[in-house]
Design goal:
The complex is a heterodimer of chains A (270) and B (315).
Chain A (H helix, E strand, L loop, with lengths): L8 H22 L31 H37 L1 H15 L3 H12 L3 H27 L3 H8 L4 H9 L4 H24 L11 H10 L5 H32 L1
Chain B lengths: L1 H28 L3 H6 L5 H11 L5 H13 L13 H36 L6 H13 L2 H15 L15 H35 L2 H8 L4 H12 L1 H26 L4 H11 L2 H29 L9
Helix pairs in contact in B: 1-13, 5-8, 5-11, 6-8, 7-8, 7-11, 8-11, 11-12, 11-13, 12-13
């Protein structure tokens, strides 16, 4: 029996907006109107047709810079959510399904870990690992594990004694098969909104950390790094900060709309 | 009374666990403090003497309890970079951050409740999509980008305050609060959007319940039912969210302080992380974690006062 998926306005708008932005960023990997690092004589120009987002103090085209630099942020956000989601789901699934002392202990550790704000935890991990884009990804990935573990644990624990799971167990299905084939598909509707929220938190966290100078370092350029660069020339070139900020906001806005749409879909179906 | 006691016991246990976790983490990774203080060229005898005077030759657990006792008596150790007691260094910074957080929290409370009530009343109307979109947009704008815009518009263009020139909190409290207000609003806006969203969805859920239908069908005014009955019953998730908010505005403030040039805890934390000044980082991390746990506990206790059903051990 296939459930008919209805699309609502929020979901559609969010998907389109996100798709356009991601496409724009991906294209930036292969083609930009100008070389993003090339300096020119057109310094500190406001937005014009030739330079849509204007140019910075060194005459670099901001449109091209944002197009190329957002890639780092996107990759970090996606890999961070992947780490958090996969590891978190495994932990949540196993502890939720088996319960017992290990479950109790892990949940207490989880409680203690959530006492540290995520940015703070990431900053502390970075202080040990040192900055750089790979370390930021690892730090944020670790930081996001507990929240995913918590969400999935509840979803898996709720299904533990449902009839179809008991039947599967009686038929001799292994616990791995039960977890992956029978339970995992039924947790999708809690997992997907968690992924959208996690993605947005990851974009924000990367931007904040790079902005503080303990995230992505040159020669790598990310949205947060560009924003800190832009803050230095806010008087001379306010359009730089505004373009970067709006791109971050649009990315988060698009994914947020997808999350909103999915939650409404859930309510309409249920 | 029993639930209060139980909650306080959990609070203390979590605090011990959190402080132990962070002490162990910093103990493992920060290396030998004696070497850090004296440098690698120090003689083994001097290193040994310093270790003994700092109590580093004691077993790990003894060191932890000493540190914990020191934490509660205001003795947080000596900063590596400044060679001064950590407590004296961070106290003025904590005051500044505390003022900013409280200001921001006040803004959040004052704005969230009226907007939340209003938005739950227009739910389902034709303006609804506009409200939801605007709400999502407010959540999407990062607080530190807002801060950059605000420093540009109000600081550089309108000259309502001088960015970077933070007045001394003790000498000019009014000027300092005025400066902090801009930062507080920037931190508050995305948070208000979250609170409004939470209030809206719980109120809508509550309005569909039978007792509300009964109350309205008996001739009560819709707005009155909302204020007198529904609001109280739908407060619990919002209070929990406000508890988390209290915690998150502190960590969100780290970046905002940087933008506004506010000499608060967040900026000092970032600086100390770059300098690998572990006694300072450790103290600030534990203080922040305690703050988060306390906010959660206060929210829980408030919830039990508001909604007495929770005292029966639900949730």
């Amino acid at each position: 029996m296939k459930k008919k998926v209805r699309i609502n306005g929020y979901l559609a708008a969010g998907l389109i907006l996100t798709a356009v932005i991601i496409l724009w960023i991906v294209v930036g990997q292969f083609y930009t109107p100008y070389d993003p690092t090339k300096m020119s004589m057109d310094k500190l120009q406001g937005p014009t047709l030739a330079h849509l987002f204007g140019t910075d103090r060194f005459g670099r085209d901001i449109f091209s810079r944002v197009m190329r630099g957002s890639w780092t942020t996107l990759v970090i956000a996606v890999s961070t959510v992947a780490i958090g989601c996969v590891v978190g789901t495994i932990i949540g699934a196993v502890t939720g399904y088996f319960g017992g002392a290990a479950d109790e202990a892990l949940m207490r550790i989880n409680d203690a870990l959530t006492a540290f704000p995520s940015i703070l935890l990431a900053l502390v991990i970075i202080s040990f690992l040192g900055p750089g884009k790979y370390n930021v990804t690892v730090a944020l990935g670790i930081v996001f594990i507990p929240s995913f573990a918590r969400v999935t644990r509840t979803a898996f624990a709720a299904q533990r004694d449902v009839n179809y799971i008991t039947s599967a167990r009686l038929m001799g299905a292994s616990w791995i098969r039960i977890l992956v084939v029978h339970m995992l598909p039924n947790t999708i509707n809690v997992l997907l909104p968690a992924v959208t929220i996690g993605f947005n938190n990851a974009v924000l966290a990367e931007a904040s950390m790079s902005f503080l100078g303990i995230g992505v370092n040159p020669p790598d350029v990310s949205m947060g790094y560009m924003l800190s660069e832009a803050q230095g020339m806010i008087k001379a070139a306010p359009w730089y900060a505004i373009s970067v900020g709006i791109m971050i906001a649009l990315l988060i806005f698009g994914v947020g709309l997808i999350g909103e749409g999915m939650q409404r879909l859930d309510k309409e179906v249920g | 009374m029993k639930y209060v006691l139980r909650r306080i016991v959990t609070l203390v246990l979590t605090m011990i666990m959190v402080s132990f976790l962070s002490f162990a983490a910093f103990h493992l990774i920060s290396g030998d403090p004696a070497v850090v203080i004296l440098g690698t060229s120090a003689t083994p005898e001097r290193l040994e003497a310093l270790r003994r005077s700092m109590g580093l030759d004691q077993p790990f657990l003894i060191q932890y309890f000493r540190w914990l006792a020191g934490f509660f008596t205001g003795n947080l150790g000596i900063s590596y970079s400044y060679q001064q007691p950590v407590a004296a260094l961070i106290m003025p910074k904590l005051q500044v951050t505390f003022c900013m957080v409280m200001l921001s929290f006040a803004v959040i409370i004052i704005c969230s409740f009226p907007i939340g009530l209003f938005s739950s009343r227009i739910a389902g109307s034709r303006l609804d999509w506009l409200h939801t979109t605007f709400n999502q947009l407010c959540m999407a704008v990062p607080a530190f980008f807002l801060s950059i815009l605000v420093t540009y518009v109000f600081g550089i263009a309108l000259k309502w305050f001088r960015p970077g020139a933070f007045p001394d909190l003790a000498k000019n409290p009014v000027g300092a609060m005025h400066y902090l207000f801009y930062a507080a609003v920037c931190i508050a806006i995305p948070r208000i959007a979250m609170c409004v969203r939470m209030m809206r969805s719980t109120i809508i859920g509550e309005m569909e319940k039978n007792y509300v239908r009964t109350a309205i069908s008996r001739g009560n005014d819709r707005g009155r039912v909302l204020r007198r009955h529904v609001l109280k019953n739908s407060l619990v998730p919002t209070i929990t969210l406000l508890g988390q908010t209290m915690a998150e505005i502190v960590s969100g403030g780290i970046v905002v302080e940087q933008v506004f040039g506010i000499p608060g805890m967040g900026r000092f934390l970032v600086l100390s992380i770059s300098n690998k000044d572990y006694p300072v980082v450790q103290a600030l991390v534990v203080i922040l974690a305690f703050w988060v746990i306390m906010a959660g506990t206060v929210a829980d206790l408030l919830n039990q006062t508001v909604d007495t059903r929770l005292r029966l051990g639900g949730r």
